[in-house]
Design brief:
6-stranded antiparallel sheet, single chain, two-stranded antiparallel sheet, alpha+beta
Length: 484
């Protein structure tokens, strides 16, 4: 039914191009050996809990009716001229430093691919859509709480300017799920995410592990063709590819640090080759600055603690480099990794300046500001997001900052040098300070206690008001960042 309705729309509007829907099932070009066709689960209920209309419109799916949305993103009926059957992707990966060759899409699949208005290839992938050949003993499902948490994570990171997958759709599915780490039975859901790619570092690791060099080369060619076309002219594709993946991954990590975000599970199968943040399990946002802050309760050694994320990301890039040694020069691959630290530092600095809404004053001055800021946050343990909210725009926010709840912090001698650095800079946007967001007294945050309160309202009263209010609040924050 959904396809017939779509074709009717297509006939009435003449072309799908007017809807900006551009089907592009490019993954099929790789041929066999990269994925397995699977069937989606059949769910007893389909209750829409989140529809990302603004991103649906950007990829030409904004005009779908409620029935069509359900058909495609809960029952997974194919989109027109797209993948006829979902694909569970094959990959391996290092998990907490231990290699696991039994991975793969165990509760999700690639559902469709399309291009945006700029020709960028995008994936629609699922989470919680049923068992696959890689599910092992798991049920292939997603808890509703897990779906809610991922929607909130992607909305917050997008608002803070972090390159992240987008939560596209969330349906509650009516199955009681049993989990050992939360009260059971609990409610179930299926999520659809929009992302630049689902090719992981672990995808390359699988072919290296199996000695399938021809598949590694084919995957590399695919990645350059669709994710890094500017590298086509490079003489040595593999090292050029690694260099760009390194740069993008370093930028991503730097922006995580500026956002105060802890991914929680930075295994090599949770990092894509496009440098896009995705797959949110036990994430956290910092309540206050603490390099040792850990997101996952099971990360007892702090392997993926906030301050260890650069080390974890770089370690995964080294593993990607290892997979390319059979098809590239090792010396060139080593050179490709060298820009990681400088790119990370630059991205973190840029991210912190963006959060403060002030312009750069040159490398040395910017680095001094960052050092003073981190020293101040360490010494005072004030809420991490507070200073960015209070001093957004620099001197233009002086009265607001000093008169706010944290004013006493800013009168301390420890803040004097940092205040001079902030106030000496030009605001990136004076107009942003007139936005409704800066008329409030508290910054928008997404701390674990807030997430738990949002979930409690859903779990106990089926009250989705705090969830929708939080998304509106996050998007209000995001609007100020876009203005700046």
């Amino acid at each position: 039914m959904a396809i017939r309705v779509w074709n009717k729309v297509r006939k009435e509007s003449d072309t799908l191009a007017e809807l900006r829907y551009r089907p592009a099932p490019r993954f099929l070009e790789l041929g066999p050996g990269f994925a397995d066709e699977v069937a989606p689960a059949e769910f007893p209920e389909h209750v829409l809990r989140f529809r990302n209309q603004r991103w649906a419109e950007r990829v030409g799916l904004g005009t779908l009716s409620d029935d069509e949305w359900l058909a495609h993103f809960a029952r997974f009926e194919p989109l027109p001229h797209n993948l006829e059957r979902p694909l569970a992707l094959r990959y391996h990966g290092h998990q907490f430093n231990s290699y696991n060759p039994e991975l793969g899409d165990g509760r999700g699949f690639l559902f469709a691919q399309l291009e945006d208005a700029h020709g960028r290839l995008l994936d629609l992938g699922s989470k919680g859509s049923g068992k696959t050949p890689y599910s092992r003993t798991a049920d292939g499902r997603l808890t509703l709480k897990g779906g809610v948490r991922e929607v909130l994570a992607t909305e917050m990171l997008e608002a803070l300017g972090v390159y992240t997958s987008k939560s596209f759709s969330l349906f509650e599915t009516g199955e009681p799920l049993f989990r050992g780490d939360e009260p059971s039975p609990t409610r179930s859901s299926v999520l659809v995410r929009l992302s630049h790619s689902h090719v992981r570092i672990g995808t390359f690791q699988r072919f290296y592990y199996l000695g399938e060099n021809a598949h590694s080369q084919k995957l590399l060619d695919y990645c350059i063709r669709y994710f890094y076309p500017e590298l086509e002219a490079e003489a040595e594709h593999a090292s050029a590819f690694l260099r760009e993946v390194t740069r993008r991954s370093a930028r991503l990590c730097g922006h995580w640090l500026a956002a105060g975000f802890v991914h929680g599970v930075l295994n090599s199968d949770n990092m894509t080759v496009t440098g896009e943040s995705f797959d949110y399990g036990p994430y956290r946002f910092l309540p206050h600055y603490d390099p040792n802050f850990v997101a996952a309760y099971f990360d007892s050694a702090g392997l993926y603690a906030f301050g260890n994320q650069p080390r974890a990301v770089f370690r995964n890039l080294e593993r990607l480099a290892e997979t390319l040694t059979e098809i590239a020069d090792e010396t060139a691959l080593g050179e490709a990794l060298r820009e990681f630290t400088s790119e990370l530092t630059r991205a973190r600095t840029d991210g912190l300046l963006a959060r403060l809404g002030v312009a750069s004053a040159g490398h040395d001055s910017d680095q001094r500001l960052v050092n003073l800021l981190l020293d101040f946050l360490t010494a005072t343990r004030m809420p991490y997001d507070r200073v960015f909210f209070d001093w957004f725009g620099g001197a233009a926010s002086r009265e607001r900052a000093l008169g706010g709840p944290a004013g006493a912090y800013y009168e301390r001698p420890a803040f004097s040098a940092l205040r001079s650095e902030i106030e000496a800079r030009s605001p990136v946007s004076q107009a942003a300070l007139s936005a409704p967001y800066f008329q409030r007294t508290e910054p928008c945050t997404l701390l674990i206690d807030e997430i738990e309160r949002i979930w409690l309202a859903i779990a106990e009263r089926d009250d989705w008001t705090p969830f929708t209010q939080k998304i509106a609040e996050i998007r209000e924050l995001g609007a100020t960042q876009k203005q700046s």
